[in-house]
Write a structure and sequence with these properties.
There is one protein chain. The protein is built from 14 helices and eleven strands. The protein is α/β, with parallel strands linked by helices. The strands form two sheets. It has a six-stranded mixed β-sheet, sandwiched between helices.
Length: about 300
């Protein structure tokens, strides 16, 4: 079954077109695109999606709709996450996505987002036999799902996304040490309050998906151009995350844009992302995570094919 999944996130707008084998559950990518559109700019402070940010997304959707039509997809799904569900005008935005682009646009709850993320992360890999946490750091929120095998158990969405945290705490370029310390304290407190100690204690390993984790793997390997095959499955150590944070936090944005392995459009938020990832690993007591290219896009594809 040929499907298209669009992820309209707080920081990025992404497309996956794939053939899904319902018998085996395999996902064969035909096309994958990702653009930093920063839909969530200003939502944390102002409470609404701006016209400029919305237009950036709509320009990408013009391109995505043409690609979906060209590939003759049998079904499609657009998942709208933190920025849209938090914004006062999010419902109107979703309605336009449905009407103008022919997409089955759904504003996901944090729980739904977490479930689809876990489904995607578990695809095409051996089912874990020990409690595993999937960490999905987004622009407005971070999803945590703890599960064993193919079954997701505890899951939650916490408001510690990279755009939200950057706008709230980072006002200098490069960031001031006090700003970084306050950002880390904010993240740590939110995680400790939102993640029950009983769930944190049982986790034995972690999988990290989405842009912060994949960027860290790419920077650590100095990939130019980006190579998803070398990123997928990469083992990222907590010590490496700390070293990357220290290195990136000393740079101004222009210098970060030149870092080998980093998409320049992620330069404004990557420091906050490294803090969120490091704090998450500490809270769960894990020294490394496996980086995965399979995330909510794969989960959406499998769900369209009737799996999961």
């Amino acid at each position: 079954m040929r499907v298209a999944v669009v992820d309209i996130g707080t920081n990025t707008t992404r497309l996956l077109i794939a053939d899904v084998d319902a018998a085996s559950g395999s996902v064969h990518e035909l096309l994958r695109r990702s653009e930093v559109t920063r839909l969530g700019d200003g939502v944390d402070a102002g409470g609404a999606l701006s016209e400029q940010a919305s237009e950036r997304v709509f320009r990408r959707l013009d391109e995505f709709a043409a690609a979906i039509a060209e590939h003759r997809c049998e079904a499609n799904l657009a998942v709208l996450t933190s920025a849209v569900r938090d914004a006062a005008n999010g419902r109107e935005f979703a309605s336009r996505v449905r009407a103008d682009y022919g997409l089955d646009a759904r504003v996901l709850s944090g729980d739904e987002e977490a479930q689809l993320t876990f489904l995607g992360a578990m695809s095409s890999r051996p089912a874990p036999v020990e409690p595993t946490v999937v960490i999905d750091i987004g622009g407005g929120s971070t999803e945590f799902v703890v599960g064993v095998g193919r079954s997701a158990g505890f899951h939650t969405s916490l408001p510690v996304g990279v755009v939200r945290m950057s706008e709230r705490h980072i006002h200098s370029d490069p960031p001031a040490p006090a700003e970084l310390q306050e950002l880390a304290r904010d993240v740590r407190q939110t995680l400790l309050e939102g993640l029950p100690e009983s769930e944190r204690a049982r986790v034995r390993q972690g999988i990290a998906v989405a842009g912060t984790a994949t960027s860290a793997a790419s920077i650590d390997q100095e990939l130019d151009p980006y190579d998803p095959e070398r990123v997928h499955g990469y083992r990222l150590l907590l010590g490496t995350v700390e070293l990357l944070l220290a290195r990136l936090a000393e740079m101004d944005e222009a210098q970060r844009r030149a870092v080998v392995g980093l998409n320049p459009d992620r330069a404004p938020t990557i420091v906050a992302g490294m803090i969120v990832l490091g704090e998450a690993m500490r809270v769960f007591g894990i020294e490394q995570v496996e980086v995965s290219e399979h995330d909510i896009l794969y989960g959406g594809a499998l769900r369209l094919a009737g799996l999961g």
